[in-house]
Amino acid sequence: MSNEADHFFHRQDRDVQVLIAENKGDELTDILVEALYDAFRILRDEAEGETLH
């Protein structure tokens, strides 16, 4: 993994820890729901490109 990716994930972990420590569950939930929507969109887009035989 590159240093840039390591830095991104480290910063992301730190940001989540801050949200949890500051008891900002609503903001954290919004971030997680948006990430799930993005993941499902990516999966849907990949599935649409496949040819079924």
Describe this structure in words.
The protein has about 55 residues and is mostly helical. It has one domain. Helices cover about 80% and strands about 0% of the residues. The protein is built from two helices and no strands.
Ordered list of secondary-structure elements with their pairings:
Layout: H1 3-21, H2 25-48
The biggest sheet amounts to: none
Assembly annotation:
single chain
Structural class: mainly alpha
How many domains would you count in the coordinates? 1
- Count the DSSP helices: 2
Query: Tally of extended strands?
Result: 0
Helix percentage: over 70%
Report the radius of gyration as a whole number of Å. Answer: 16 Å
What form results from the Cα inertia axes? flat
DSSP strand (E) fraction?
A: under 5%
Q: Which residue ranges are poorly predicted, with pLDDT under 50 across at least 5 consecutive positions?
A: none
Mean pLDDT: 83
User: Could you tell me how far the N terminus lies from the C terminus, measured between alpha carbons in angstroms?
Assistant: 37 Å
